[in-house]
Design a protein that fits this description.
Order of helices and strands: EHHEHEHHE
Distance between the termini: 30 Å
Number of strands: 4
Radius of gyration: 13 Å
Largest sheet: 4 strands, mixed
Structural class: alpha/beta
Oligomer: single chain
Number of helices: 5
Helix content: 25-40%
Strand content: 5-15%
């Protein structure tokens, strides 16, 4: 999982509030992980210190606004909340089948949040 203080900082620094989630994958996650063995974003050395055991499972649409997902993850939380977001926890490259079984992640979480953006 990812700490929401890092999630907020990343979103503010890169100003990606209005990006669609698929754009975060295409223009942030994939380019930064490609040269690192196509690892999970959460495994990057610069990101790893901000990860931990997730207590909240985030469900969202890749066509939704990234900022809506971040806002939902932060709602009512302290900055040390750890959320599981697939774009960071799942390898975004071919051969990631083992990453796509979320049952173990869900079993370790105490809650799930569904982030839904308005339909445009």
């Amino acid at each position: 999982g990812m700490r929401i203080d890092f999630l907020l900082a990343l979103t503010f620094v890169l100003n990606i509030w209005e990006w669609k989630t698929w754009e975060v994958v295409q223009y942030l996650v994939k380019p930064t992980t490609e040269g690192e063995g196509r690892c999970r974003f959460a495994e990057l050395p610069m990101v790893r210190p901000f990860t931990g055991a997730a207590t909240i499972f985030m469900s969202h649409c890749w066509g939704g606004r990234w900022g809506d997902l971040v806002a939902a993850a932060c709602a009512g939380a302290s900055t040390d909340r750890v959320v599981w977001i697939d774009v960071f926890a799942v390898r975004q490259w071919p051969g990631n089948v083992a990453d796509l079984d979320f049952r173990g992640v869900l079993a370790g979480c105490t809650a799930a949040i569904v982030a839904a953006s308005p339909i445009e």
